[in-house]
Amino acid sequence: MLRFMFVGDSMTIGSAGEHTWRYRMWQHLRASLGERDFAVVGPRRALHDKASGEPVSYAYAGMDPDFPRHHFAGWGEGWLHMAPQMADAVRQDRPDILLVSLGLIDLGFYTNAEQTAENVRRCIAEARSVNPRVRLVLLPVIPNIRARTDAPFAAEVARFNVLLAKAVADLDTGASPLLLASAPPSYDTDGDTYDGTHPNASGEHKLAAAFADAMHQAWGLGAPYETAPPPLALNELSATG
């Protein structure tokens, strides 16, 4: 049984009333791998509660009782924050594959592109220190509203994405494969987010597809993601505004 762990920032943890791309990915894995052939693991389970500013909500949209809510994501957390916690998370939950979407918070508030890339390498080393055969799929920093309006920040994002690709090329091994997912080519900050950064239902599908398609193409794992998301249900319409 393959054990997946979602690692990320606010776009991955999600907030109250959202499905999250974790849910979309779980649906895809369930359809393509079979319910009994994988598990979702992680030390956390809650959503971010915007009212309190804390990760204390369990108000997932849809409330599918079968959805495993486990993850390793945090609102306002980046590579800088996850690196010192990674070994413990891998030791506790024994993931085989880490699906990682990080970097925007680091570049926006804490570290430049080079420093962020160093934290990527540290995070990978920490995961491998516990499981030398762990696999990682890494997503570049995707389009966001700040990069559209802040040229120096956009340059840092572009520089980091180059350094992330270099880290993947440098550190990939046969025992512990690394895979760089492609940013969704049609991802649009107006149509795929509700505030220029955080994904709405359409964006959730596109983020899940980036990981699913990368694993299928490179490792033959699962199947291609359904490129056209299904029509929004009423509860999804209310969640996306």
H/E element order: EHHEEEEHEHHEHHEHH
Structurally, how many domains make up the residues? 1
The count of β-strands is 8
CATH architecture: 3-Layer(aba) Sandwich
Structural class call reads alpha/beta
Largest sheet: 6 strands, parallel
The CATH class name reads Alpha Beta
Helix content: 40-55%
CATH superfamily: SGNH hydrolase
The gyration radius over C-alpha positions equals 17 Å
CATH topology: Rossmann fold
Characterise this structure:
- With 241 residues, the chain is of the alpha/beta class.
- It has a single domain (2-240), classed as 3-Layer(aba) Sandwich (Rossmann fold), CATH 3.40.50.1110.
- The protein has helices at 10-13, 21-33, 79-93, 104-110, 113-130, 145-149, 151-171, 201-219, 234-240, and strands at 2-8, 38-41, 47-49, 54-57, 72-73, 97-101, 135-139, 178-180.
- The strands form 2 sheets. Strands 1, 2, 5, 6, 7 and 8 form a 6-stranded parallel β-sheet that branches. A two-stranded antiparallel sheet has the order 3-4.
- Helix 2 (21-33) crosses helix 8 (201-219), helix 3 packs parallel to helix 5 and helix 5 (113-130) packs parallel to helix 7 (151-171).
- The model is unreliable at 228-241 (pLDDT under 50).
Summary keywords:
six-stranded parallel sheet; two-stranded antiparallel sheet; alpha/beta; Rossmann fold; 241 residues; globular
SSE layout:
Elements: E1 2-8, H1 10-13, H2 21-33, E2 38-41, E3 47-49, E4 54-57, E5 72-73, H3 79-93, E6 97-101, H4 104-110, H5 113-130, E7 135-139, H6 145-149, H7 151-171, E8 178-180, H8 201-219, H9 234-240
Parallel strand pairs: 1-2, 1-5, 1-6, 6-7, 7-8
Antiparallel strand pairs: 3-4
